[in-house]
Specification:
Elements lengths: L23 H18 L3 H8 L3 H4 L13 H16 L11 H22 L3 H8 L3 H4 L14 H54 L1
Helix pairs in contact: 1-4, 5-8
Length: 208
């Protein structure tokens, strides 16, 4: 069966696993890992298509163990790497879609964090738009207290946290440079003072 490739064109075309080349155990293993990764990532099929390079129509048929339709090792590795990236950037696991109460609480959590980060960064909407890669019009909707389904995404919050860390490091580096300059100035002043003392002492030595 031919699989349409309509995912991210910048990614190498992945190969799907077929029943002719895989054992039953391998098919089951890949199918189980794919389900676990799908649950952990919580991505829509459209987003997963961009990540893996597989067409949505292909993802709709996976996994189907009786026919051996399971993701390739390359696809699974891309999903693993995305999960590692999210964990590294502090992006929390997605809230199950069926849990409306938990989803509402998660939106509030993101709104509160957005307000706090926005306050600490002190950026205008235009400046913040450049940091997070969103339009100023989109940011006008945030934090979205009065919009039931609107809230900043964890990806946006992760970018704001990264900018806060970058600024803190820059401040420390600037402080270290300033201390170094001040130390050099103090040393130059001390040398100048010694030269002045020596110059003032020379007439007394000549008189003696």
């Amino acid at each position: 069966m031919a699989y349409a490739y309509k995912g991210n064109p910048n990614l190498p075309r992945p190969k799907h696993g077929g029943s002719k080349s895989l054992t039953v155990e391998e098919i089951r293993h890949r199918a189980d890992e794919y389900r676990r990764l799908r649950t952990a990532l919580g991505m829509s099929r459209a987003d997963l298509s961009q990540l893996t390079g597989l067409a949505v129509s292909t993802l709709n048929q996976m996994p189907y163990e009786p026919a051996g339709r399971v993701p390739s090792p390359r696809v699974l590795e891309r999903m693993r790497q995305e999960l590692v990236r999210r964990n590294r950037e502090g992006i929390p696991p997605p809230v199950p879609r069926h849990d409306a109460e938990a989803a509402a609480a998660d939106r509030d959590r993101r709104r509160h964090e957005y307000v706090e980060l926005r306050k600490r960064l002190g950026l205008s909407r235009t400046e913040l738009a450049k940091v997070v890669g969103l339009s100023a019009n989109t940011l006008n909707l945030y934090p979205g207290w009065t919009l039931p389904k609107t809230a900043p995404t964890d990806t946006t919050l992760a970018k704001m946290r990264a900018e806060l860390v970058r600024r803190a490091r820059q401040t420390l580096e600037e402080a270290a440079i300033r201390d170094e300059i001040e130390a050099e100035v103090a040393e130059m002043e001390a040398r100048w003072h010694l030269r002045q003392c020596a110059a003032e002492a020379e007439p007394w030595e000549d008189a003696a």
